[in-house]
What does this fold into?
Amino acid sequence: EADIYQTPRYLVIGTGKKITLECSQTMGHDKMYWYQQDPGMELHLIHYSYGVNSTEKGDLSSESTVSRIRTEHFPLTLESARPSHTSQYLCASSESPSGGYTFGSGTRLTVV
Amino acid sequence: KNQVEQSPQSLIILEGKNCTLQCNYTVSPFSNLRWYKQDTGRGPVSLTIMTFSENTKSNGRYTATLDADTKQSSLHITASQLSDSASYICVPGGPGRRALTFGSGTRLQVQP
It folds into this structure.
């Protein structure tokens, strides 16, 4: 039973479109994360947040932006999608940075 | 530099057989180690967590071991099932880190 939800599950869009990937959790976790993953590869941290109004860039340079206006909500936005953004985007939350992470099911994004 | 090495990179076994996956890490500071299972196209799911003082932890057919002195861990899967086909990721954690690092893990394929 998922306590962290990502929508949409799959998304195919054209180049130049603006998109927002949604992520919500019901566990009251302060820490939330966005990872990007290509098939068979490691997860790359692209954004994280330690609480409301707190956001930081991760290890992998990304043209996306995030916001954290509410504890339960951590959306990711691409202002102008490009084919290089084609990937799987995984959202996670935790009670502490080194603790157990709960992941959403991911959004599989394809930019054509 | 914090590093995690898992072996083998990939493994094919027959249904019903046992297997053991290995993990060597050099993360510091270190406080716990988790094993995650990631099905294709899904987010990772936590299987076990061990603190630095624990040697073994079981979750059904999954048994993890930890040797904090040699910085080695293993995940043993007993009586494998087709549903065990997935990637298994070793994730060490510790204080002072902003987020966990998830490698590509060991890709296990269980064949009938």
The mean pLDDT of chain A is 93. Chain A has no helices and eleven strands. The interface with chain B takes residues 33, 35, 39-43, 45, 48, 56, 58, 88, 90-92, 97-106, 108 of chain A (CB under 8 Å). Residues 52 and 69 of chain A are 6 Å apart (CA to CA).
